[in-house]
Amino acid sequence: DGGITQSPKYLFRKEGQNVTLSCEQNLNHDAMYWYRQDPGQGLRLIYYSQIVNDFQKGDIAEGYSVSREKKESFPLTVTSAQKNPTAFYLCASNNGPGSGNTIYFGEGSWLTVV
Amino acid sequence: RKEVEQDPGPFNVPEGATVAFNCTYSNSASQSFFWYRQDCRKEPKLLMSVYSSGNEDGRFTAQLNRASQYISLLIRDSKLSDSATYLCVVNVPLYNQGGKLIFGQGTELSVKP
Asked: Is residue A4 over pLDDT 80?
């Protein structure tokens, strides 16, 4: 089945550690996105990529890094520089930010700092 | 002013009730509009796109008012299974970058027996 797969679903991080969240899609979508959602809040854009080997900062990119070496994959690294990383992270994809096409989400990853 | 703003929740309604959500947006050049549904601790899923002429899907009706810059979602004959958070999403055009999806903070709906 086509879709977006995120892993791990639950992750615990010690303070000072970097962690990487995986996102893979087999929808042949050009654009991929990472969002963060805090309790009772809307989604905030961290990074997005419109094409392989290119990505742009979103509204809250500080403390995060990404790569887009393959069309199917858009991993997100939460670095130790991110001061408040506990949140629900959502990866998404569509056929491009300007297309007006709907966006599809993975099931999300819950990150908790312990 | 937030780029996309929704009615504050939660909305607590009895089964069978009709409930309406409103969402306002600040960028008059916005082109595409959507309603997403998000269940507790799950990812958002597309409920419906919103077209200028308005559109209906079963018990759900979405309307767009470009002059007043708001969109609405009407749910008739509410079911227990409609309990969720409803997210308003607007595609805001960006110069030379296509567009950017902006999410509202969501309105929680709780349908009670």
From this structure: yes
